Structure formats: structure tokens, C-alpha cells
């Protein structure tokens, strides 16, 4: 049995010779809720993309539930940044949530009745059921984020990785998303979330990774979210 | 006349089907690049076989089409120049190479430049072949096979095409390689472009690929609807445009392109919530 949901060893990623993240060693406990914080350009998105094998590593290893193959990333439900998809695409809310089931189907197969029911339940949990037939271009920012979260829930994965899910959304949606995440955590799900608002970290998370190219501090929120560490992460200039 | 219209119709249907995904991916101009550079494949294959009907021409064209897409991706991904600059660079140089070869060595044969650029669908019925006792234009057989392949491809990979066009990163994370889907799609675009080549030439084929899909995009909130509407407009544009061009003795593929633009603008103006209907307020009962 694996000890950690996600484990990385000496993970380094570079863009055209310039180091983005360096020597990242992480051990993410199962059923934990971890925030990645750090200034702009600290490599937060790069770190999660490297974990998902979306970025080439210079060195290092990633294992997900003890499995270090590329295929292991299918154990993760990924919620990208809102801007990363084509919102004018002709597709409905329910269609998008059903996409969360695709990784279970494999090539060629079409969604079944069961897949549709799982998607409908995820929409109910995100209070989006009445929008199920609406085209995605006609949703507000908060509604789009709820659709993304519903899609991730439909995947029924053990691990959720999210890139700034709370950016640019209304307070009601923020509360609903954090409540859903807490409920799923109680069911044993693990969360790794890029987060931009450091003041809400103690309310929303139990663990935190403070990143600025390298890990400045990581551990439980109570232990590491200190003024000194915040200063080190946000205000210390790196060598470059 | 009927055979000419049938050739146009099959060309329009096979291009419009793939066109849906090209328009959604914002890759209409990549198609333009492919439809030009395949000429290089055709010319090189013709040097080898000396037969304009050889299947090697299609294989050569498809290979050059894929090389085009690959070069654009490689140059674009270097992030040293933007992707549209890479497209302009690759396609003009490969096309120019083909034009040089044609004008230098193939001056006296059917591959003349006017036809390469604009196509000449009226010649299609002259080139006939008998299969299973049915005597039909060669182009018609070829296009029917291509349409069948395209329909099968979209039916089989519908889910994968949809996901990778809408959210490529999520597609990769879910285990569906976007490269496999992309290069398969672009292979079929090359094959389709080379079979459409005789009828509509390299310049106007872009209108066949994109106009019906762009029109359908204005009217659809689901992908499946967009595909059906795109095929419907492909049929209308090719039949109306083809008949118009035939009766007025003007360029037939040109007429289809003009009719395609007219139908796009009619839909653009008169669609629900469009610039005209949104201004008319009907009394609420």
C-alpha cells in the first residue's frame, strides 16, 4: 500500500534553459487539503503541471499513489484555470460534466446511462442542475468554475489538483466550492490547490506549500504559515 | 450537369464535415496551408509515376500535408516566432517550390497553374472509370470513398475529437493523446484536400472547409447540431452555387464560394439575437 497520495523527488523543470522550479521534494498525505502559495512567477502552475506530466522534467520523479508511470495521472481529477478552454465551443453544461467520465471509458466507447447519472449528481452537488442544457458560453465566471468542479467530481478520482479555482468568482460560489471540498476530504479525497489569497489559507486548508522556485516551507498550516516564512517566500529576491 | 453537381456535393460534404473541427480549433488557415503544399506532393509523385490518376499522388500529397503541419508545430512551439508566422513561412515556401517545379518541367500537361489554383469541375465527367459495372466519373468514386472515410473517422472518434478540441489539456490528462487525434485529423484533411483539388483547386477549397462550418457555428449550441447544420449548408451552397455557375457560364467553384459567403452573411444578419432580429421587439402576448 502506498503511504502518500503524491510524492515528488528532486523535481526540476526549466523553460528554455531558465529554471522554473527546482529540487521540489513533496510528500502529500492522503485526505489532506494542501494549498500552494507564492508570488507571481513562483512556478505554482508549473509544479502542478509537472506532477500531471504536462511539463517535461529536467530531473526528478513523481509518484501518484505509489505509481510513477505516466498513466498514473489518470488517477487525478484536474481542474484547469478558467481561461484554458474554448468557452465558445458549442457544448452544454451536462456535456462538459460527462467529459469527466471519458477517462473511465477509454477510446471509442460512448457515455452510458450510468455516466450520465453520475454527471447529473455532480451537477446537483454544485447546484447547477437547472443550467444543465445551457451552452457554456452563457455562464458567469462562478458558474463556469462550478461546472469545472462538477466535471472533476464526476471523475470520481481520489486526488484533485486545481489551478486557482477561487479566482474571479463570487463569494457564494467560493463558499460552495470550499464546502464541497471539505465534504470530499472527509470521504478520503486528497486536494492540492494553487491558491492566491494567503489570508484565507488558515480557513480553507490544513497544509500549505510555500513556493518560490524552490520550496521555502511546507507542512501543516499552523506550523509553517509564519510571518518569517511569508516574508521569505514573497519578498526575498532569488539569485536571478 | 448532374454529375458535375454530384462531384461538387460530395466535395462539399467531405470538406464541411472536417471543417467543423478545424473551425472550432481555430485552424482554418492551417487547412489553407495544407491545401497549397499538397501540390508539392502531387508534383513529386507525378515525377515518379507520370500518371495523374495514380494513388501515389494521394499518398505523396498526404505526406507533404503532414510534413507541413509538423513543420508549423515545430517552428511554432519553439516560441521564437508565432504560429501564424510559422504557417506563412512554411506554406509559401513549399508551395513556391511546387510552382517552380510545375512551371519548369510540367509546362505541357494537365497540371497547369490556372487549374491548380481555381480547379475545373467541368472536366471531372470526362475522366471516367467503370467499377462493378457502373460507369461514373473517376472523381465521383474517389470522393465517395473519402466521404465514407471521413464519416467513419468522425463517428468513431467523436468523443475524442470533441474533448481535444474543447479542452486539450484535460484530454491529455484523461489519457487521450491530442497529437494522435490532431495528426489523424490533419491526414484526413490532406487526403480530402487532394481529392477536392481537381474540382475546386487550392485557393477555393478553404471556402469549402470553413464557410459551412462557420455558418453552422452561429446557429449551434451542441457539437452534433453544428455538424448536421454544417453538412446542410455544404449541400445548399454547392448545389445552388454549382447551378448558378453552370447556367451563367462562370467559374463553378467560384460561384459556390460566393454563395457560401452570402449564406454566411444571411445567417449572421438574421440569426436569433443577431444584429437585425434583436432590434425587432414583438409584442408579448
UniProtKB/TrEMBL annotation, chain A:
Recorded hits in Pfam families, A to Z, give:
ABC_tran (PF00005)
Which InterPro entries does the protein's record reference? AAA+_ATPase (IPR003593), ABC_transporter-like_ATP-bd (IPR003439), ABC_transporter-like_CS (IPR017871), Metal_Ion_Import_ABC (IPR050153), P-loop_NTPase (IPR027417)
Q: Keyword annotations for this protein?
A: ATP-binding, Nucleotide-binding, Transport
- SUPFAM superfamilies the UniProt entry points to: P-loop containing nucleoside triphosphate hydrolases
Indicate the secretion signal residues. Answer: none
Residues folding into a coiled coil are none
In the UniProt record, does the keyword Heme occur?
no
TM region(s), chain numbering: none
According to the UniProt entry, its GO molecular function terms are: ATP binding; ATP hydrolysis activity
* Domain named ABC transporter: residues: 6-237
| Family of this protein | Belongs to the ABC transporter superfamily.
- What protein name is recorded for this chain? Putative ABC transporter ATP-binding protein
UniProtKB/TrEMBL annotation, chain B:
Predominant location category: membrane
Q: Give an example GO cellular component term for this record.
A: ATP-binding cassette (ABC) transporter complex
Gene3D superfamilies linked to this entry: ABC transporter involved in vitamin B12 uptake, BtuC (1.10.3470.10)
PANTHER family referenced in this protein's UniProt entry, alphabetically: ABC-TRANSPORTER METAL-BINDING PROTEIN, METAL TRANSPORT SYSTEM MEMBRANE PROTEIN CT_070-RELATED
One GO biological process term is: response to zinc ion
UniProtKB keywords: Cell membrane, Membrane, Transmembrane, Transmembrane helix, Transport
List localization entries.
Cell membrane
Q: Which InterPro entries match?
A: ABC_BtuC-like (IPR037294), ABC_TroCD (IPR001626)
One Pfam family named in its UniProt record = ABC-3
Q: Does the keyword Membrane apply?
A: yes
Family, as annotated: Belongs to the ABC-3 integral membrane protein family.
Q: Does the keyword Transmembrane helix apply?
A: yes
- Its protein name is Manganese transport system membrane protein MntB
Task: List the membrane topology term(s).
Answer: Multi-pass membrane protein
Which parts pass through the membrane? 6-24, 33-50, 56-76, 88-106, 138-158, 170-193, 199-219, 226-246, 252-270
What SUPFAM superfamilies does this protein's entry cite? Answer: ABC transporter involved in vitamin B12 uptake, BtuC
